[in-house]
From TrEMBL:
<protein>
    <submittedName>
        <fullName>Tyrosine recombinase XerC</fullName>
    </submittedName>
</protein>
<dbReference type="InterPro" id="IPR010998">
    <property type="entry name" value="Integrase_recombinase_N"/>
</dbReference>
<feature type="domain" description="Core-binding (CB)">
    <location>
        <begin position="17"/>
        <end position="102"/>
    </location>
</feature>
<dbReference type="InterPro" id="IPR002104">
    <property type="entry name" value="Integrase_catalytic"/>
</dbReference>
<keyword id="KW-0233">DNA recombination</keyword>
<dbReference type="InterPro" id="IPR004107">
    <property type="entry name" value="Integrase_SAM-like_N"/>
</dbReference>
<dbReference type="Pfam" id="PF00589">
    <property type="entry name" value="Phage_integrase"/>
</dbReference>
<dbReference type="InterPro" id="IPR013762">
    <property type="entry name" value="Integrase-like_cat_sf"/>
</dbReference>
<keyword id="KW-0229">DNA integration</keyword>
<dbReference type="GO" id="GO:0003677">
    <property type="term" value="F:DNA binding"/>
</dbReference>
<dbReference type="InterPro" id="IPR050090">
    <property type="entry name" value="Tyrosine_recombinase_XerCD"/>
</dbReference>
<dbReference type="InterPro" id="IPR044068">
    <property type="entry name" value="CB"/>
</dbReference>
<comment type="function">
    <text>Site-specific tyrosine recombinase, which acts by catalyzing the cutting and rejoining of the recombining DNA molecules.</text>
</comment>
<dbReference type="GO" id="GO:0006310">
    <property type="term" value="P:DNA recombination"/>
</dbReference>
<keyword id="KW-0238">DNA-binding</keyword>
<dbReference type="Pfam" id="PF02899">
    <property type="entry name" value="Phage_int_SAM_1"/>
</dbReference>
<dbReference type="InterPro" id="IPR011010">
    <property type="entry name" value="DNA_brk_join_enz"/>
</dbReference>
Length: 326
């Protein structure tokens, strides 16, 4: 107990910039690479400690957690019906916080804040992640989907611009919603969009002329232009729910895709990741090289791109092709 009081005294004396709470500072470090990761971590940490705000968690709360608490958290989430991916993500978030705290040591006393990460050795306890096959569209379905959208309204024009862009660039959800008007550029005579990839990496994606035309029509219909409104988000809300004119919520995109698919008569459970999967698959089937697809999809590892190619080749050159009995 005395040791805990000393540790609490030390943590209170640490000069964290702007007098931030220690976990808030940890989340800010995460947000420097990915704001979405930081937000996800915050929710997971709050969930485990059962508090309303991250600032309510004390260093003693951190110290008092044991492996039994960690294991019980897994059981609780399982009983609540949480998916294996969700459970593993939450454990990963908490483990990341404890790994960060393990780095701290006080030079004057030799005291560490913590000496053990209760979330680090839960391989046997964590559920096996079941990777669901991502549904994607064929070329014919992609055309059908886009043709079904009524562009006479600003909402329809926006939705077609988003889906056209997603299906021709393989952009991720965060990359799509964070595009600003000033990010639409012409580089060496080629129309492109500047995007921020995973890990805060700057990149550019090529704009197909037809997609660029849709985007320009949408910008004009919203009464904006690329020069005067360069700092505004490209895709914004057009509703009466308080989000009109504001940056899109990530969940809005998934909801929009489901609605458009239903209207088009496409019976597939699609998400934004499905449009990315579709774009990558279409590029591969059209004959793009693995190197070009890797750059197109912004995969860090060629092995990730190879998985797409392997899945397609598995269907193309299948053993069933040698069976002729029907």
């Amino acid at each position: 107990m005395e040791n805990n009081k000393l540790i609490s005294k030390i943590i209170n004396e640490i000069r964290i910039p702007e007098r931030k709470h220690f976990i808030r500072y940890f989340l800010d470090l995460k947000a420097n690479k990915s704001k979405y990761t930081a937000k996800s971590y915050e929710k997971d940490i709050i969930d485990f400690f059962n508090v309303d705000d991250i600032e309510h968690i004390t260093i003693n709360d951190i110290i008092n957690v044991t492996i039994f608490d960690a294991e019980n958290f897994i059981l609780k989430l399982s009983h609540e019906g949480k998916s294996s991916a969700t459970i593993n993500r939450k454990i990963s978030a908490l483990s990341s916080l404890y790994r960060w705290l393990l780095k701290f040591g006080d030079n004057s006393t030799g005291i560490q804040i913590i000496k053990y990460n209760p979330f680090a050795n839960l391989k046997e306890e964590k559920p096996k992640v079941i990777n669901k096959e991502t549904e994607f569209l064929t070329k014919e379905e992609s055309v059908k989907l886009l043709d079904s959208i009524d562009t006479s309204t600003v909402l329809g024009l926006r939705n077609k611009a988003i889906l056209s862009l997603a299906l021709t660039t393989a952009l991720r959800k965060s990359e799509l919603i964070n595009i600003k008007l000033g990010d639409i550029i012409v580089y060496n005579g080629i129309s492109a969009i500047k995007v921020i990839r995973k890990g805060n990496i700057k990149d550019m994606v090529k704009l197909q002329p037809s997609v660029e035309q849709l985007i320009n029509e949408y910008i004009k219909k919203t009464g904006r232009n690329k020069n005067d409104n360069s700092d505004e988000y490209l895709f914004i809300g057009h509703s009466s729910n308080g989000l009109n004119g504001k940056k899109l919520n990530p969940n809005t995109l998934n909801l929009m895709i489901r609605k458009v698919c239903k209207k088009a008569g496409i019976n597939k459970k699609l998400k934004v990741h499905s449009t990315r999967h579709t774009a990558i698959t279409l590029a591969i089937t059209a004959g793009a090289s693995i190197e070009k697809v890797r750059d197109f999809a912004a995969h860090k590892n060629l092995a990730t791109t190879n998985r797409y190619i392997h899945s397609i080749d598995k269907l193309k050159n299948n053993a069933s092709d040698f069976i002729d009995i029907v």
